[in-house]
């Protein structure tokens, strides 16, 4: 499984998970921490202007630990309507039309 993060300038982080592993809140927060470090190195001004994250309503994304991590880092979340496959821009940007 691949988790991809990007901004208006391109891909910021590609996180690949080994076959047979699953995402839980701890693993997702580890990925967010890698994202935070990648943003600091690739787009240092971005953290000063704020991070706006869109993710779906999967359990690791809505877990208490994840919400606490996002609050601590002061990242804003764009609401994601339930069951909205049309809001998955990775499908287009990674694989093309």
Automatic annotation (TrEMBL):
The residues that cross the membrane are none
Record's Gene3D superfamilies?
Answer: Ribonuclease H-like superfamily/Ribonuclease H (3.30.420.10)
Q: Which domain of life is it from?
A: Eukaryota
| Name of the protein this chain belongs to | Mariner mos1 transposase
Which molecular-function annotations from GO does this UniProt entry contain? nucleic acid binding
């Amino acid at each position: 499984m691949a988790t991809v993060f990007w901004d208006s300038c391109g891909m910021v982080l590609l996180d690949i998970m080994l076959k047979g592993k699953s995402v839980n809140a701890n693993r997702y927060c580890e990925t967010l921490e890698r994202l935070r470090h990648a943003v600091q190195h690739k787009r240092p001004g971005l953290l000063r202007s704020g991070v706006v994250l869109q993710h779906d309503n999967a359990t690791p994304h809505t877990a208490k630990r994840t919400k606490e991590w996002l609050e601590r880092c002061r990242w804003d979340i764009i609401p994601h309507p339930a069951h909205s496959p049309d809001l998955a821009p990775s499908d287009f940007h990674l694989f093309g039309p």
